[in-house]
Design a protein that fits this description.
The chain is α+β, with helices and mostly antiparallel strands. About 40% of the residues are buried. It contains 9 helices and 14 strands. It has a 7-stranded antiparallel beta sheet. A 7-stranded antiparallel beta sheet has the order 9-8-12-13-14-11-10.
Length: about 325
């Protein structure tokens, strides 16, 4: 296990989210923003709900994962270095219905995302039980790399968005081009020669058939399955949006090109209609996961979560 010293650990702990990559069944690096916390033994804890169990399923099939701490929004440390971590993950089958060994993780989440305190009180419990039925993923770091702060690597704007109308119009026939055009940077997920995942913040250039990325942006990458993630959140982990563009990474001289094939956008505009759609989808996905395994819907330990959500517990 690669050790992390106190100074670097403090920088990592200030990040509200990281980009977390697992490998899909076809080998595609699948990256999503998530909250991660460091355990006292030097490992990382990531949790995922049954509604989005694919991360857990991927880890159980192939434990090679990567994390990139690159967006300092909300951390109060805009000059914090980016930190890349690669390692091996483990995810037991146990469904956690309470905080269990993740007490500090949940206490921190309620403090950093105060609007989520309402989710553990009635009447929100019926709509949100899926969120608190979770798997715990433990990541043992094998390699840690410190990189320049995001502000030094790309030009950023409020919440990571470009201002309306900035840049050339995106070609309509390239999947995800409109999304990439709205962000000053994206996270490229690729693989190295051993097929382990790699991550880097990049500034894609929309081309005739995809997204151009300097060859030097991701040392050690090889052609093959890849993806681009765009995401944002505000200072209080609200106003979230994320989308993943999946495709093929092709080498063209001094530039990579990600040729896109599919866009997955689970968190869209953030408006009421979009929020209702997300909640409905999450509840159905949770029910399907349990039904497929012949499991009854577990009861969330609301009392334990509500105790951690109290301001006196989190502030």
């Amino acid at each position: 296990m690669h050790p992390i010293d106190a100074a670097l650990g403090t920088a990592i702990d200030a990040y509200r989210t990281c980009e977390f990559t697992t490998l899909g069944s076809g080998g595609t690096p699948l990256t999503w923003p998530t909250a991660a916390s460091r355990n006292p033994d030097g490992t990382f804890l990531i949790t995922t709900s049954l509604a989005f169990a694919q991360k857990a399923l991927n880890v159980r099939r192939d434990g090679r994962v990567a994390l990139l701490f690159s967006d300092p929004t909300g951390s109060g440390a805009p000059e914090a270095p980016q930190v890349f971590v690669s390692g091996t993950a483990h995810c037991p089958e146990e469904i956690h219905t309470g905080p269990d060994e993740a007490v500090e993780y949940w206490r921190t989440m309620f403090r950093r995302q105060p609007h989520s305190r309402a989710f553990v009180r009635r009447p929100a419990r019926w709509f949100m039980d899926w969120y608190y039925l979770r798997f715990f993923i433990t990541v043992t770091p094998d390699h840690v790399e410190v990189r320049p702060p995001l502000a030094h690597a790309v030009d950023t704007g409020p919440h990571g968005d470009r201002s309306a109308g900035a840049g050339p119009a995106a070609p309509a026939d390239i999947p995800g081009a409109d999304l990439v055009a709205r962000y000053p940077s994206a996270v490229l997920g690729a693989r190295d020669a051993s097929r382990a995942p790699l991550l880097a913040r990049v500034r894609p250039r929309v081309t005739a058939d995809g997204f151009g990325i300097p060859a030097t942006a991701l040392e050690g990458a090889v052609p093959g399955r890849a993806s681009l993630l765009v995401h944002r959140h505000d200072e209080l982990l609200n106003g979230m949006h994320n989308a993943l563009i999946r495709g093929e990474l092709v080498s063209r001289g001094d530039e990579w090109t990600l040729v896109p094939e599919r866009v997955v956008e689970p968190a869209g505009s953030g408006g009421p209609r979009d929020a209702f759609r997300t909640l409905s989808t999450a509840r159905r996905s949770t029910s399907r996961y349990l039904h497929a395994r012949g499991l009854a819907r577990p009861r969330v330990r609301w009392d334990l979560f509500q105790a951690l959500a109290q301001p006196d517990s989190t502030d």
